[in-house]
Fold this protein.
Amino acid sequence: MNPNTPWPDLSGIAYGGDYNPEQWPRAVWREDVALMREAGVNLVSVGIFSWALIETSEGIFDFSWLDDVLDLLHESGIAVDLGTPTASPPAWFFAAHPEARVITRDGTVMGFGSRGMASHSSTAYRDAIVRVASALAERYASHPAVVLWHVHNEYGVPVGEDYSPQSVAAFRVWLEKRYGDLEGLNRAWGTAFWGQHYTDWAHVGAPAAAPSVVNPAQRLDFARFTDHQLRECFIAERDAIRLHATQPVTTNFMANQSWGTDLWAWAPELDIVSDDHYLWAADENGEVGLAMAADLTRSVGKGAPWILMEHSTSAVNWQPRNIAKRPGEMARNSFSHLARGADAILFFQWRASRAGAEKFHSAMLPHGGTRSRVWKEVVDLGAKLGMLEELRGSRVTADVAILWDFESFWAQDLEWRPSVDVQHQERIRTYYERLWRDGITIDFALPGHDLSDYKLVVAPAQYLLSEADAANLTRYVAGGGTLLVSFFSGIVDENDRVHDGGYAAPLQEALGLRVSEFLPLREGVRSELDWHGDGGTAGRLSADVWQEDIEVTRADTVASYLDGPARGGAAITRNAHGAGFAWYVSTRLDVAELRTVMSRVYTDAGIPTSALPEEMEVVTRHGSEHDYVVAINHGVAPAWLSITGTELLSDAEVDGTLELAGGSVAVIRTAPSREGGGAPRS
């Protein structure tokens, strides 16, 4: 590893995917590497689900087949991301250690034959993962093919929470460290409610299924504990590898597609951040969710280049309706990740499996073989990525941050909230999509982060907000920032207790208002707003799901309710606080309706927007000598981009205007600029 960078010892943009040669006769292996070279593959992940073939019984290892695979790949010029196979313990492990099986919240003991089946609190499991990781690292630390270590696979998927006796015992230990004594626990959990007061640590259990709703503070802590246990397992394997090897270590996140791991806590433990992202077929605008995942991955990694460890060439196999990607869609997906900071574009998997649960999952080399459209697109993508070595190491900057807080999500997702229609995923996606369609590049952040470099901070779903974090947001506004807060934010503290002073109490100074009461709407009911936020120009906005009874103390009302339970009251407010502005939106607006509000918010924040079609995705990566503008036309009609530079995929000079055909991609080298992350103006 280069001592100045944790990036693997590779040239150019990494390209490849999961390779599972153990599923195929040896005769196929040489065909594989020949086709990999044809496709431009330079990195593959090996061994991720191979525990049973590597450690054939407890403490007995067979490396012969893996030796041959790594040697063959190295001879062919293909580097290896070597996986530890600990997401799928062998049958012999569970036969020897049945107590390591996961138990669900309702008491079901999970069986064998899947993946992610072991309790992360099991001593036997922890001993076993360190043993196999150590053995692999000791044997392959110096193998010239190995440039990266890949620990486990998608922590928390499909199993995160475990209610086994070992997990319950570990939970008690974790709680005692967190609270010190039972008095602290009882106070934090509010156990005076429903007579839950504890007098003995032995009486404290996991929040298993119960006759009614279980203490939400206990559930929140169990989510924190689960994340801690998963992360401890990763650290144990990572440290075992580092005793022998110097290559960087990673594991594959699932960014905005899994809520069970707090990626802000995980990312500092990795040498390089990696992510898996799969389009949700039911989402007709999947490119927006993809961009959101990429921006989140970059953000938790503090802006450093990252690895797209997995995505699909076409359809997946685990959704209700697995929609195949359309021609060119795979390339657009790949370039969106590249645009947002990925220096590696990898897939699951290289060759489509003939057997097992994922045999209908697409692959770089599909069942249709080298005559298929997918294969031809794979080869074409490899050639294009091979032209872009100079992008490696360049970074993305942003003027806008959206708050993304896993602990708040864990708390908000629990039962008995005011309306089932209020979902953090929906609000964050809606605000993100509005910004995306306005051509604005976005970072994600925690409310306690230093936000001073951002012109605008958006809090679409910050249900849980500590007093300290609220003070940080208030200082941000006073210092000249623009803050937008959506409804049902700032409601509870870190123990899921409603703030003293009422809803949104810790943000009252910044927002200039008090929230007196929630007024959820019945299913399907819409309400109208009178908008007068543009210099007195009146208009109408349409909303649904939610209203609030607001007492305005200092803020200006820029929209009021025309109907519904809050009729005549403030719906959207703007408050000047110090040198900045704080906006509050007390109802649910969709992407289209938000255009009016956000246009006014951008003016306060001093943020220019793009005049490009909403289907255009344009992101700039900043290098030491040049900038690189990645432009993706997700629409069918051509679009024109005002830009000057060199289009790298065609090696053509662009003097002022670039025409981008529908469905196509361009990468333009330009003169450097540090004016922020927005799109070029057309």
About this structure: Residues 122 and 460 are 38 Å apart (CA to CA). The longest strand covers residues 526-534. The domain at 14-160+229-391 is CATH 3.20.20.80 (TIM Barrel).
